Fold this sequence. Notes:
Blueprint: H1 3-16, E1 22-27, E2 30-34, E3 43-45, E4 48-53, E5 57-61, E6 68-75, E7 82-91, H2 92-95, E8 104-108, E9 121-124, E10 133-138, H3 141-150, H4 162-169, E11 172-177, E12 180-184, E13 198-201, H5 203-206, E14 222-229, H6 246-259, H7 262-276, H8 290-303, H9 310-320
Antiparallel strand pairs: 1-2, 1-14, 2-13, 3-4, 4-5, 5-12, 6-7, 7-14, 8-9, 9-10, 10-11, 11-12
Amino acid sequence: MSASxxxxxxxxxxxxxxxxxxxxIGSFGAVAEFFRREDEQVSAxxxxxxxxxxxxxxxxxxLRNDVQPLAYETLSSRKNYWLxxxxxxxxxxxxxxxxxxxxxxxxxxxDAIRSDDRHGVLFDLGLGAANVDFCVRSSDPDLVKxxxxxxxxxxxxxDSDTMKKITHASPHRVVLSSLGRVEVYQPIGHxxxxxxxxxxxxxxxxxxxxxxDAKIPIPRGYLPCLNVYPASPLFxxxxxxxxxDRSSHLAFDALLKRWGAxxxxxxxxxxxxxxxxxxxxxxxxxxxxxxxxxxxxxxLRQLAFDHxxxxxxxxxxxxxxxDH
Length: 324
């Protein structure tokens, strides 16, 4: 095992033990997310430090030597804020899913995380994603019959009512990639996203054929197969703003320096250094590259939490982040 993989193994183990961290496996518009509460009872997989389950959902990570981590930050739609994550990517050939475009029965889910679920029947919903297979699992004879009748059809066809029937029955959702699986047990939210493990299935976004948000600089030739969301310095794991936590900020900054895109990290470092050295913002040109431009704005948003230099940061933000 390479030194990089060993480093990543330690990071993943720590994040799985941190209730402030979330995970997801998915593509653009079709994703399963795993979160848990601090007070929630947790079961770990026997002899498997990369499996965690609760009564509401579970995750299993299968780490590989060819994984390419990417630590990234993106601008939040909320003023003054930013988001961060760690995308684990694989070369296209190794990270590709089945890309089925029709509902397909896969048989009993013998790899289910909980032993009681291994006789449930797994159906790939045929969303055609390049990097994941979005499935449902059920032992309900009525739903299994409905899905078998729908096999070979497109879930997203305009005349299909299968989605409505699945939503009503609310089976387990199981999303698979070459780096593991996320299982969601709690019911589908009909009116709002439920707290804790949940799924999103948004046909309009799925039809774009994209595997990820364009703001995340996934390396060319790679597919994102697992996303990790270490504790945010600004939000809890439900996305609710909280008081700024510098320790969480510094913890992720270490990951960014280790696995961030070189251009992004270099641009951020330049801005951080320039502001602290009292260089005038007018002497710096805004980069044309979108990734570098976001690095400038995020660096300034982060510096704004350093009250000792807030006046300096305000001048810089009036130049480079006026709509913050």
